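re: the backbone from monday

yeah here it is again, tokenized this time
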């Protein structure tokens, strides 16, 4: 009996640590308002910031905007602490684009960036992302 208790305590301790250490970022699921500021190399004028809402939940942590670049696929999503990173590949009328992004969650707020390259034109697109939770999902 004494030996069983000796093994149970370390196993429970490891299980509790893994459950909290790998539980995901500090993000409150719900409806989020996300603002994207975009800067494009070679553009003489600034692009107005765009704001949209999105339901973010566990397992769906990548903010996505109202994009007009075409069909986009998100891949290689990784979570490290409170930071979520991903890769993005888009096809559209202006040619293919590739990029990567990351956001850091802080409970009911987040900040991050997403940089993309328009392959045919060699144009770089830099996005700053800022978001806040505004309530429950519809």
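seq for it, each position gets an aa:
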């Amino acid at each position: 009996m004494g030996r069983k208790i000796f093994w149970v305590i370390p196993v429970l301790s490891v299980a509790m640590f893994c459950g909290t250490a790998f539980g995901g970022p500090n993000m409150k699921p719900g409806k989020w308002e996300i603002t994207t500021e975009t800067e494009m190399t070679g553009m003489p004028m600034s692009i107005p910031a765009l704001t949209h809402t999105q339901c973010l939940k566990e397992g769906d942590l990548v903010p996505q905007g109202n994009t007009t670049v075409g069909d986009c696929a998100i891949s290689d999503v990784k979570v490290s602490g409170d930071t979520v990173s991903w890769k993005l590949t888009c096809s559209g009328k202006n040619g293919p684009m590739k990029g990567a992004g990351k956001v850091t969650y802080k409970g009911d707020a987040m900040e991050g960036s997403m940089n993309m390259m328009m392959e045919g034109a060699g144009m770089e697109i830099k996005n700053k992302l800022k978001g806040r939770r505004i309530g429950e999902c519809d």
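The mean pLDDT is 81. The radius of gyration is 20 Å.
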